[in-house]
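RETRY 2/3 - previous attempt timed out on the joint model. Re-submitting the same 732-residue input unchanged.
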Amino acid sequence: MTKHTLSVLVENKAGVLARVSSLLARRGFNIHSLAVGPTAEESISRMTIVVDAPELEQVKKQLHKLINVVKITELDPMTAVEREIALLRVSTEGQKRSDVLEVATLFDAVAVDVGVSTIMFLVAGAPDKVNDFVELVRPYGIVDLVKSGRVALARDQKSRKLRAS
Amino acid sequence: MSTISGAQAVIKALEREGVDIVFGVPGGAILPAYDPLFDSSIRHVLARHEQGAGHMAEGYAWATGKVGVCIVTSGPAATNLVTPLANALMDSIPIVAITGQVATSSVGNDAFQEAYTTGITMNATKHNYFVTSPDDIPDVIHEAFHIAATGRPGPVLVDLPKDILNAHLQWHEPPTLDLPGYKPTVEGHPRRIKEATTLIANAKRPVIYAGGGIIKAGASESLRKFAELTNSPVVTTLMGLGGFPGDHELFLGMPGMHGTYAATTAIQKADLLIALGVRFDDRVTGNPDFFAPHASVIHVDVDPAEIGKVREAEIPIVGDVGRVLEQMLEGWGDTKVVDHTDWLEKVTRWRSDNPVRYDQQPDGPLKPQYVIEELYKRTGGDAIVVSGVGQHQMWTALHWKFSRPREWINSGGLGTMGFGVPAAIGAKAGMPERTVYLVDGDGSFQMTHQELATASEEGFPIKIALLNNGVHGMVRQWQTLFYGKRYSGSVLGRDSVNFPMLAEAMGCVGIRVETPEEVGPAIEKSLSINDRPVLIEFVVDPEEMVFPMVPAGGSNDQILLGLEDLT
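RETRY 2/3 succeeded.
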């Protein structure tokens, strides 16, 4: 199934996350990732939802029926900035430490916690970059992994024109 | 400035919304609100069960077009409301439910009579509120009524913890609506309207497929004008019956699983489907892959999510169906419709050649259809007709000629057995001058018949035609047709309950009818009694089945008109 990224502005009220996730479950749409946080406006939060759905029209329309949902935008990866953060604890037992650090350097991954036999990295960037890093360090042994879920915003209309010209 | 309690604010807010009657059952957490209710101009009707209170609010809303209100306590009372809420959500009935909740300090602690009401009803309401500050009460109640009544109508629940009801607040006027995410579209898009007009004018085999939206929007008169202007035959769904005159020459009846041959077939042969306030329900479409295979679709609905949900629309129009019909009529000008006399001749021939039929022998078992036709004759069709869910509901839909909106009240989408008795009480409460006749089945009736006590005690002289066949008739019909006549778990027993005695025990008049010749006089008698509810038990033939029928999931091209089509 295709993954779609939705940027959903919701009223910052108790229970809104439950309404959104419950609706998606009820209508049979699978949530791949969901990130929620405040916007510059105190009364409004933004949810970035990545859903698996054959077509998005029904998802959008059903979400719109929620009274607390203010605005829904489907983000096209070509015209949006999408980012993700991952924290990974990678095993460095044996002679692996310098190899792991070398890969990390290539990905601008920062060592945020160094232990006797593991290093925790923070890697941030486009979802593909984060995924690539995860795959490259996987052979060394990933002890723990957490991802933030995707966050995204549409690019400025103007910058799109400039890039086109 | 003086303050009032949260409880007083609730009642005051209800009064401000113009509420004159509420249906409810009191209990611990909602008790504070019952105290100011005692002094209010609002009448309280004490239901015997919270589900009854909910369906009464629905019956009231359906009959009057106003928002129905029910009020119950926390925990089991709130969970008992789930069925009416889900029913109201499916059938787009505007109700507001007020529920008590345990004090905020106890919420989440598994306190006595605590249930997570807003969580449980999240998917059974259009919206719900958990009130955490008494100051919010005036605005929340106002928003609840606004949301329930506008756009696609539906149920809204307001959950009020006991300490919030007891706390004090400063009342304020006027109430504010703070709903940045809720702006229903009313006007249809002018370009779409224009496109629709062109398509309709050029259609050779148009069919208007009208639903409950017509009734909710108060658009029956516009629909009649529009059908006559475009010379298009009209079918109405179960929810839309009465939205178009049942005796009109353009009317073909109800389509679908138990629809008329003419209505169902007209859709199958149409080249244009003008869908007005409908949702392409599976009971109408059968297998959607085979539904209206030759038709382009114009779909008008106030709920954008219904458009394209089941069937792609060539011309989608989001808007209030009443307003959109007005726009079409206004913009029609001198547009000429293509001559489709032969189409009209064809559909009217289907109608006359395939009437809904049954066979009542003078000395044979009593047929339920005969009872309904007698009822129609003896009342002159001048009644608000309510039903439960099952065979009796389909027979009523097929044999009663509904001619005016809001005179047919039943449970469509959710198919809630037990809807009948309380909904009839709600309808009578809203329209005390009208005759309210409930046609019920013995299975459906026994799910909520305790509300007969409410009807007699509170003075709602409803009339009930109870079609007793002693079985869950629709279940039995399927078992007859698809399960080799193995009647597993569907036999109630025709003599299991003495229904006239039961009615008498609850302060109603009870009559039993067993033969065709007793039917007319019994109905006449029921019509002459207006100081008490009347129940007539009609002991009917359990073998009788609802036809026409399209088996579930089948194509609407294969309609069974009677048992003879099964071989």
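The two ends of chain A are 34 Å apart (CA to CA). Closing ticket.
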